[in-house]
Amino acid sequence: MIKTSSLFILFLCVSALHAQTKKGDVLIKNGTVITITDGTLENTDVLVRNGKIDRIGKNLKAPNGVEEVDATGKFVMPGIIDAHSHIAGTSINEGTSQVTAEVSMEDVVDPLDVSIYRALAGGVTSIHLMHGSANVIGGQNETLKLRWGSTNPDDLRFEGAPRTIKFALGENPTRGGRSRGIQPQSRMGVEAMLRNTFSDAVKYRDAWNEYRSNKSSRKVAPEYSLRMETMVDILEGEVLVHCHSYRADEIYMLMKVFSDFGIERLTFQHANEAYKVAPELAEFGASASVFADWWAYKLEVYYSTAYNAAILTKNGVNTSINSDSGELIRHLFHEAAKTQKYGDLSDNEALALITLNPAKQLGIDNRVGSLEKGKDADIAIFDSHPLSIYAVPQMTFVDGVKYFDIENDVADQRIYIDPESTVENVQIFYADDHDKCMEGANVVNFYDLFNNK
Amino acid sequence: MKKFISILSVLVLLPLFAVAQNDGGIVRADNSKFALTNAKIYTVTNGVIEKGTIIINNGIIEAVGANINIPGDAQVIDYSGQEIYPGMIDSGTRLGLSEIGSISEANDFREFGEITPNMQALTAVNPNSVAIPVTRVSGVTSALTMPAGGPLPGTAATISLFGYTPDQMYAGSKGVVMNFPSSAQRGWRRRTPEQIEKARERAQETINDAFDKAELYAKIKESDAARYYPEMEALAKVVTGEVLLYIEVNSAKDITSALEWVEERGYKNVVLTGVAEGWRVADEIAKSGFPVITGPVLSTPTRGSDAYDTAYKNPGLMQKAGIKVALRTMDTENSRNLPYNAGFAATYGMGREEALKAITINAAEIMGVGDELGSIEVGKKANIFVSTGDPFQTSTKILDVFIDGYKIPMTSRHTELYDEFLNRTPGLNKNATKVDG
User: Fold this and answer.
1) CATH superfamily assigned to domain A79-367+427-446
2) Which ipTM value was assigned to this complex?
C-alpha cells in the first residue's frame, strides 16, 4: 500500500515536471501557403494534428472531429518570431554588477501582460524575452511561445529551446560604468571585462575538471559559482550569446574575443552598423537581429542606414528583424516589408527575416520558422499578402491552438485587473520611448550603492 | 595565366574606379522649368488624371492636366507608368530641432520655463540636419516642427524640407503650442492618481493665469502703459485669433475639458493635436468644429482594456464622425514613415482616399496654408513626388521629389551608406592583389 502511494506521488511529480500545454488539431483549407523553405503554394491545405504540421497538400480531408478553417483568398505563413522582446517580463535589468550571468528572465515571466495578446493579433507566436543592456554580461533570456490565457508562467516556455544570454557593448554598459565609477567606461574596458571574465571561466572550468578527475579522498572542492557555471556553459556552446551592439568596431571586437575563446555561435542584437562589417560577420558565421529603420536616437546609431538588413542579407549574413518594443511587435510583417523599399529583398527573403532567420538565431529552427511537415503548428493567417500595407492578421495558432481570431476578437483581453485601481490607467504612447533595454537600469548609481539605497 | 587573370581583374575593376572618382561630386537641386509628362496624377482635390502633364515654373505649378502644351524651354521628364502625388505633410515632428535623441546638446526643442510661447521653433531649425534629406527622399516635403516642454513651450512652424536657411524653409504657418493639463500617464515613470491630479490642477492654474494676462495684454498692448512682454505678445495673438493654437491633448476626459476651456475662452483658431482617445468623444469634437492632428497611428492603445487595433482605427473613427483629420508621426528621424501611418489608418477604417487627404490637403488647410500646399493645382507650390505606385505600399519606390519647384537630389545618408557598403571595397582581405574566383 505504501509502495503504491509513493508510486502515485512519484507519478504526480513526474507529470508536474512535464506539464502538458494544449495541442490543437485543425485543417486550414485552400489558402496561399507561404512555407518559407519550400516556396509559396496556391490553393493548398495545411493539416495539423496534435500541435504539429501533419501534412501540406491539396484536397486534404479533415479527419473526424478536426475543425476546418477556410483560408480561401487568404495567406497562411509561419508564426512570426521576435528575436528581441521585453513584453511579458516583470523586470528587465539586473544592473548591480557588470556581470550578472547568474540571473535569468525565466524567473520574471509575466503571463498576464496584455501585450502578449496584441502581439498574437500581429501574427507573432514566439518571442525572445531578453534581459536588458545595462551590463556587459547580463542575465539569461527566455524563449517563449505566446500561449495567452494561462496564468502559469511555465506554460509560456518554449520547451526544449536552447538557453541564451544577453551581452551588451557600447554606450549602455559604459554609461553604467561612468555613473558608478567602475569599469567599463570605454569600449576598451568592455573588451577587457569580457576577456577577464572568460579567462576566469576557463580557470573555473579547469579547477572543477581537476577536482572531478582527482581520485584522492582528501580533495577539496573549488568554490561553486552559478555565475561562472553559466560562463562555462557559454564556452561549451550550451548557452547562445545574443549581444546588444551598435558600432562596427565593437561588433568586430566581440568576434575576435569569441574566436580566441573558441565560441562559435553568436547573434548581434540591434547591430545598426553591422552592415559595415558584413563580410566579417559572414566569415565568422555570426547572425544579426536588427531594426527595420530605427536610428539617430543616440550617437552610436547616428551612422545607420535602413538598408542594413538588405546589405547583411546580400552579404550572406543570417539576419532577422526584431521589435524591442510592445508597439512594433504588433506589425513585424510591416517592418519586414520595409526591406523591399530599402534594398529590394524578395518576398521570401523579407518574410524569412521574421520567421526562419530568427528561429535559427534562437536555435529553434528545427521546431518553428517555416511551414514543414513535422514542425510545430505555429501559424499566422492574413487576409492579403503579409508584406502589403493593407494586410490584416486574421488568425494566429500556437501548437495548432487558435489564440487569436479576428472574428471573435473581444476588446478587453485583460486576465488580471488591479483590484486597488479605482480609475483605469490611461497611458499615452510616446514615440521617443525607444531603447527599452535600459528600462530600470538608470536607478542605481555610485552614490546610491554606498548609501544603502 | 596568372598574369592574364590579374590583367583581367584590373579590367573588371576599372569601371569601379571610374565610379569612385565621382564620389564627392555634389548633386545640386535643380530649379529649371519642368514638364513632367505621361504620369498618373493624383491631384487630391480634383480627382485623378490617368495620363497627364504638370508644368513647374518658378517654384509654382503652372499647369496641370491631360492636354497641356509643353513650353519649348521646359526640361521634359517622361514619367510613363509612374504616379505623381502632392508632397506629403507630416503634421507633427521635431525635424530640424533634434539631431541625436539621447544627447541633450543635440536637441533644441525644449526651453527652460513654463510659459515660453515666444520661443520660436523656426529659429532653431537646422536646415542641414541629416534627418531632413532622409525624410524628403521618401516623399514627405513639408512638416510641422514643434517645441515641447511645459504648458506653453513655444511656437511651432510649418517648414519645407528644402532650403539653406530657416527663412528659405518657412512654409507660411506658425502656431503656439499648448500642452493641455494631462490626466494620463506618459513615459516609464508611474505616477499615482493623486500625483497626476495634483500636477494637472497646478498646470491648469498656470495656463489660466497666463491666458487671463494675455487677454488683458491684448486689450492694452497698443497703449503706452504696456511694457515689452514677449510671452504675452505671443499669447495675445492666440487670443485675437491671429495665430493658431495647437492644443496637445490625448485622454477622453482631457479632450472634453479642453473643448470646454476653449469654449469658455471663446478662442476660434484652434487645432487639437495628439487626440489619442479622440474616438471616445468624436461627436463632441465634431460638434466643436475644431480640426484634429492625430498620430502616430502606429501606437499602442491608451488603455489595457482597449482593443489591440484601437490606435489604428482612431483616425478613421474621427473622420467618419465629421472631424477634419490630419496625421502626424510625432517623430524626427523616422518622419519618413508618414505614408505607412496613413496606410494603417486607411486599412483600419479611414480608406485610402481620406488617408491621403489626411497627409496632404487636410494638413495644409488645418495649418492655414491650403491655398499653397496639399494638392496638385495651378498656382500652388510645386511640392510633389513621383512614385512607382501607391505610396502607402512599402514596396513602392519614390523616384523623384520636387520641393518649391526644386528637383531634389534623391540621396541621403541612408542611400549613401548603402552604396558604399553593399559591396564593400576592400572586402574581407585588404591585401588581396587579385580576385580569385
Assistant:
1) Metal-dependent hydrolases (3.20.20.140)
2) 0.93
